[in-house]
Amino acid sequence: MLSFLKSCWRTSGKFKFGVIVLAIFVLLAITGPLFYRPIIGDVSPARPGQFARWIPPGEKHPLGTDGHGRDLLTDYLAGLRTTLFIGALAGVVATTVGILVGFFSAYNGGWIDSVLLTITNMLIVIPHYPILVAIAMVTPELGVASMALILAFFSWAYSARTIRAQVMTMKQRPYVELAKVSGQNDVAIIFTEILPNLMPYLLMGFAFSVVGAMVAEVGIEALGLGPSNIITLGLMISFANGWGVYSMGRLEILLIPVGALVLIFMAITMINRGMEEYLNPRLQKVTTEK
Amino acid sequence: MNSQAITQPNAQMLLDIKDLRIWYRTTRGNAQAVDGVDLVINRNEIFGLAGESGCGKTTLARGVLGMTKLPGYVESGEAIYYHPVSDSSVVGRDLLTLPAREMRQMRWRHIAYVPQGAMNVLSPVLRIEKQILDAIYEHSDLSKEEARARMFECMEMVGLDRTVARMYPHELSGGMKQRVTIAAAISLKPGLIIADEPTTALDVNVQQVILQELKDIAASLGVTLIYVTHDMAVHAEMADRLGIMYSGLIVEVASVVEAFKEPLHPYSQGLIASIPMIGGDRSRMVGIPGNAPSPLAWPSGCRFHPRCPKVMEICRDKVPPMLEVAPGRFVACHLYPTPMSGAAPASEELN
Amino acid sequence: MRKLLRKYPVLGYYFNKVFTYFVTIFGALTITFFMFRLIPSNPIQNWVMSLERQYSVTIEGGDAMINRYKEQFGLTGTLWDQYVGYLRQLILKGDLGPSFIAFPTPVQDLMIAAIPWTIALLSVSIIISWSLGLLIGSTAAWFRDKSVSDIITNVSIGLSQVPSYLIALFLVLFLGYQWKLLPTRGAFDAQYQIGWNLDFIRSVIAHSFLPALAIVMVSLSGWILSTRSLVISNIGEDYLIYAEAKGLKPRKIMIGYALRNAMLPQATGLALTMGSMVSGQLLIESMFVYPGLGQVMSRAIAIFDYNTMMGIIILSVVSVMTASLIVDLLLPAIDPRIRTAIKA
């Protein structure tokens, strides 16, 4: 898998761009406390009324404070942390469940496969967003982890369906047939023959789930329908709209979280596309001329 | 180049390829797939083009059709096609410098193509009739009825039932699809048909029948056929003359009888020796040692020298020129520096 | 039966599809129903309390009243009773129950009033972005060696996963507030009379412009990319080389062969997207305060209006499934290859 990523890095400009941009944001998220702890001290970044409202940008507050008396830089860094964390956690859970269900379904085939596929399809056709919002509304004290789990509950079905399809085609590959004929047991075949070859697709599915979870999360938060006890970039968008930053002439308060999210979504999409093009060169230009 | 200015050297000549080079740009340098081919195709003959896979046969065939695709490009050379414009005058035009529009109009009208049709050459979502008729409409002024009549006529010639016209490709067998491509190719009565490994994917019985049909059609329509395949047994059956290609070059041209009876170039000898002949001497069946060289870096001197059983000192440095060693017999090999005396009786005998 | 199946194997295929259709809809309905009932919430209590707050009165006998409403809303008895009752009402009478947000208007009436707005906005946006995507995508594929094609492709890739509400935010800020070019709220100006008069129609078009643009901008990139890769994967195909050898005009090869072969998946995609119209852009509608289903939905969510939420979700599931059923049933008629595959 490492060599796969290395080849993607070497051959795809898109992949490289995405990895660099994403790495910068992840780094900012990880090192965030180093920047905001000196400003806010040892309290929760979400606590309102820590400072006076609307202090203009200055030495103590590089970006000023917001309408709830919080440091804006802290808002963004803490928001980035939770947004990325929720996305990553939801992605991991959804992909894991998706792998288990997808493999189980495709490898067994028959009626098990039909039943699982039908259930998967049911979950896919139910519009997620109203249910997510409804859950978020009635549980205002939603934690970061439970938010991620709820998002994952709705997105595992997509990964399960794509992984199932991949395993189905892989089952018919000659090397898997060979392993079967030579009497290897199923678990060994899954781990030695199918999983390694599926790795790039799992990575792509993971990135897809992360984007999906983040899009849903930001969508709920940005319209002010999500929990307001944890700061996310989506919540910052909602706050900015509520504060009327436009009429205040502080447009950047809205543009920073929106811009950051757009860049993150683009970066992950570019990474995914880079991998996809490496696996299927036909998506790229057909000629090798450079 | 003004196409009118080219005068035909002799009335039999249909296609005159001179020093044709078609290269591919790759990240590791130029792949010289076709690299200095000289070849003359005569009117009303079946010319067989033989050689291992990767020797440049298909590149050459597509190049003559003006369908060299990037990263491939024509490095140099000419391919002059002579076609009569009236009873008395013949026009020669270089297919390689013809503007794209004129080249497009040349295709099918004058030079048709029969690909390996058992695979995916027919669009899966269009009916057979549409795929034959669109070429007829494109290149002729025939009315709808006339075009359809022409189509049925051609389908009949290759033994296809009329009902096939309304079918989709997936409903046809490999042999039927191949017949469709032949019917399409003859629909405008072109002067030249280039057939690139058309029957390779078919089973032997079907292949036999189709080859015979193709041969009969070529004779009855008076069409010239360039038949490209690696299969020497097919050449033995089909061709009037044979050109043997190796590493982007033609190394030997001879009538098919001479080529099989007494191949001159050591590579030709190897090729012919490797054909399993029914009732032939089994011990004679030998392959050619070594692998085909890479088009990225052809060997110096004679390109066959690293594999040649009769290699000499001169072969390593000096490129052997193509010489006419006997009437109509061309070979590029240092073993035959001058017109032969030893091989002459063979050709006389044949004459 | 078996004899009939042997004679018309396609019947088995149809039967299978229709069966799956009903099972999936029924399953999705059931999952949603129980999910909503299991979420801890007491909408009626909240509702009565908010009424009390609103009118600064204490409603006498509040508990008795709550019970009466519970009955009306089908919230009495065990969960199973509620479920059976809901199904009976829905299937026998086509009744989705009363709504909270506009009590006592039945949910279906609310939805019928909102649907035309959603359909008008979404279907126009979808068709515009689909046709543009087909055009730009196939051109980008055909001229894949030109740098313009690269730029289009890369921009599309970048935009393809950006949610439309973020794009909408930009549009609102710049086109709406900054330059004041277009209205950003509602579906028409209240000053005009509703009906077929020019002012009203102009107002409707102006109001739908920004939401439509936001939807088109994002979904367009998806259509561009899928068309491009479908056409490019065709370009390597033997039948295109053969079409070129036949000396057909390049435009004819592109339209008659390359695009023709890409059309089927794209037409299928269009049908499926049309099916997801109801739920596809709920957020955009509530952002632009557009009086469609999304708007109804967000009002319903705000006070946890079970019946309305269920109603819209069911409609959405049914329309998605119906679109895919239509595609499945029509495919054998359109694609000769599938017909043969079913027979085998």
* Biggest interface: A-C, 44 and 52 residues
CATH architecture of the largest domain in chain C: Orthogonal Bundle
Tell me the CATH superfamily of the domain at 13-106 and 240-275 and 287-350 in chain B.
P-loop containing nucleotide triphosphate hydrolases
Shape of chain B: globular
Give the total of beta strands of chain B: 12
How many helices of chain B does DSSP assign? 11
What is the third-level CATH name, the topology of the domain at 13-106 and 240-275 and 287-350 in chain B? Rossmann fold
Strand content of chain C: under 5%
CATH class of the domain at 13-106 and 240-275 and 287-350 in chain B: Alpha Beta
Mean pLDDT of chain B: 81
Question: What is the average per-residue confidence, as pLDDT of chain C, rounded to a whole number?
Answer: 82
Q: Give me the secondary-structure category of chain C.
A: mainly alpha
| Proportion in helices of chain C | over 70%
Helix % of chain B is: 25-40%
User: How many DSSP-defined strands of chain C?
Assistant: 0
Largest sheet of chain B, described in full?
A: 8 strands, mixed
Task: Please write the string of helix (H) and strand (E) elements of chain B.
Answer: EEEHEEHEHHHEHEHEEHHHEEH
Q: Helices and strands of chain C, in N-to-C order?
A: HHHHHHHHHHHHHHHH
- The general outline of chain C is flat
The CATH superfamily title of the largest domain in chain C: MetI-like
Describe this structure in words.
The complex is a heterotrimer of chains A (290), B (351) and C (344). Chain A is an all-alpha fold and 290 residues long. Chain A has eleven helices and no strands. With 351 residues, chain B is α/β, with parallel strands linked by helices. Chain C folds into two domains: 2-93, no CATH class; 107-343, MetI-like fold. Chain C has 344 residues and is an all-alpha fold. At the A-B interface, loops of A face loops of B.
How do the strands and helices of this protein lay out in sequence?
The complex is a heterotrimer of chains A (290), B (351) and C (344).
Chain A: H1 2-11, H2 13-40, H3 72-108, H4 110-125, H5 128-138, H6 144-171, H7 174-181, H8 186-222, H9 233-243, H10 245-248, H11 252-279
Chain B: E1 13-26, E2 29-42, E3 46-50, H1 57-64, E4 72-84, E5 90-94, H2 100-106, E6 111-114, H3 128-139, H4 144-157, H5 174-186, E7 192-196, H6 204-221, E8 224-228, H7 232-238, E9 241-246, E10 249-255, H8 256-261, H9 266-273, H10 313-317, E11 323-326, E12 329-331, H11 344-350
Parallel strand pairs in B: 3-8, 3-9, 6-7, 7-8
Antiparallel strand pairs in B: 1-2, 1-4, 4-5, 9-10, 10-12, 11-12
Chain C: H1 2-7, H2 9-38, H3 43-55, H4 62-72, H5 79-93, H6 107-142, H7 147-160, H8 164-178, H9 198-235, H10 238-245, H11 250-275, H12 277-280, H13 282-287, H14 293-302, H15 306-334, H16 336-343
Helix pairs in contact in C: 2-15, 6-7, 6-9, 6-11, 6-14, 6-15, 7-9, 8-9, 9-11, 10-11, 11-15, 14-15, 15-16
